[in-house]
Specification:
Distance between the termini: 29 Å
Shape: elongated
CATH class: Alpha Beta
Largest sheet: 5 strands, mixed
Number of helices: 6
CATH topology: Pyruvate Kinase, Chain: A, domain 1
Strand order of the largest sheet: 3-2-1-4-5
């Protein structure tokens, strides 16, 4: 076999092998995407219920003060950057890190190795990094949320904002910065979260029932801001996981389709070269036979 034909055949094998890998990655990302979307939707129901509890409770007792709600001069912004641990997910990581680099006067906490690595290369202030698995259970996210609460109360940061990939649909995932602390008010924060999640407004205006707080009003209201903050962080992580797997599935599908196109083009080139070689051999045999006769 001529050297040129051998090279083309090797390239065809290589491209097809790569296509098989990207196809497998596409199927894995597709299954993980479905699970991540289901988890995000289930958490949205909890967020809606928690928002209704906040609205209802505060409508019964009025305003109250809490350390997590107190505003102060912003000297250092606290940013929780949520990124994937792996690449191969299109422009998702680069879009998130680009937005992070545009933020000045910030100290970062990261969930995801890609964000940690990008911030380290850029020399940005990194307070902590927390690993979270693909399932992103609440117990895994809680340490990061508690660290951020402590950093806010200790004065290390004057705001707490989360930068994550908001999941709109399978094809669209957009970077979003959402401020969580200090909150203008729990009612307003709950309504903003429901609006961003596309959830309906609760109908509590006509609820005239008395509310009993156990163990006490002060105890319940002191716990609600932290609980709501942890839930908001968890929801952002779940949205980011759904975005990651969706983006990876789309990227791997595009890679698989491209490998098929390249393999088809190389096969056509191989067949043309092989036909040309056969034609050349026939011409040489014909010329040799004519010379002998």
């Amino acid at each position: 076999m001529p050297k040129g034909l051998r090279e083309i055949r090797n390239r065809i094998k290589s491209v097809k092998s790569t296509g098989q890998i990207t196809r497998a990655m596409q199927l894995v990302a597709s299954s993980k995407m479905k699970r991540a979307q289901d988890a995000a939707k289930a958490s949205r129901d909890y967020a809606e219920l928690l928002g209704e509890i906040l609205d209802t409770a505060l409508s019964k007792v009025g305003e109250f003060s809490h350390p997590l709600l107190k505003k102060r001069e912003v000297k250092t912004r606290g940013i929780l950057l949520v990124t994937p641990d792996k690449g191969m997910c299109g422009a998702l990581n680069s879009n998130l890190t680009r937005v992070a680099f545009e933020i000045q006067g910030a100290a970062f906490v990261t969930i995801g190795r890609k964000g940690k690595q990008a911030l380290a290369r850029a020399g940005r202030t990194l307070l902590a990094d927390f690993p979270v698995s693909d399932r992103a259970n609440f117990s895994e996210v809680r340490p990061a949320a508690e660290f951020l609460i402590k950093a806010f109360l200790d004065g290390k940061v004057d705001t707490v904002e989360v930068l994550y990939a908001y999941f709109k649909n399978t094809l669209v995932q957009a970077p979003r910065v959402q401020r969580l602390l200090p909150a203008d008010g729990l009612v307003q924060q709950a309504r903003e979260l429901r609006e961003k999640l596309g959830l309906p407004e609760p109908k509590i205006e006509s609820d005239e029932r008395d509310m009993i707080f156990e163990p006490s009003v002060s105890h319940i209201l002191n716990e609600l801001p932290g609980l709501f903050f942890k839930q908001a962080v968890h929801q952002a992580v779940l949205e980011s996981k759904a975005s990651e797997h969706s983006s990876r599935m789309v990227a791997m599908k595009a890679a698989t389709d491209n490998s098929k196109k390249i393999a088809a083009a190389l096969s056509l080139e191989y067949n043309k070269a092989r036909q040309a070689a056969i034609t050349q051999e026939i011409l040489e045999l014909t010329a040799g036979a004519s010379a002998q006769s």
